[in-house]
Amino acid sequence: MHIRPIHQGDAARMAELLEQLGFPAGERDVRQRLDYWLGDRAGALLGADDDGQLIGVAALHVTPILEITGKFGRLAALVVDEAHRGRGAGRMLITAAQERARAAGCLFLEVTSSNHRHPAHLFYESLGFTDSRETSRRFVLDLTPEGDRRGGAPAGERAGAGSPEDARRDAGGLADAGGLAGAGGSGDAGVPGRRVTAAES
Question: What is the mean pLDDT of the chain?
């Protein structure tokens, strides 16, 4: 097993992984997402490859900080194939993301995880992440047309099952610890979540 960059040829396999998360996506949709991810110099898509098969993906985004000198890395998504969990792929992906973030000048790495995903919280804490919910809160404003019609209500506040708000709340998420589902990622929108960080010292 090794870590490699994601490319457009992975679109079909990534669609399968997203479906395992409960977010069905066609190959065409995934290709469109890969277009903007692969073209973003501040982003990185890392894949766990097992003998030619893509079994996991991590999405990292680097953001500059204004308050202090430096940047931080956000683990926007993490998914490991159901059949390959518990073999260390998730840990390998996070380690690779840490290394990429450190090389980019990041001071810390963060990930957001929904409150109900307790196994994911334990997984992140086992890797050295600390829960910062006692010192900070996250506020989200929905910028989609649906949010505009609701008067800018936070994403997820009035969401129905299978809605874009549900996707933003739970997207990103499958850590490689005992088959747990949901590692937070780019969502948790509208849900008071646990924000865990790992300092890059």
Answer: 80
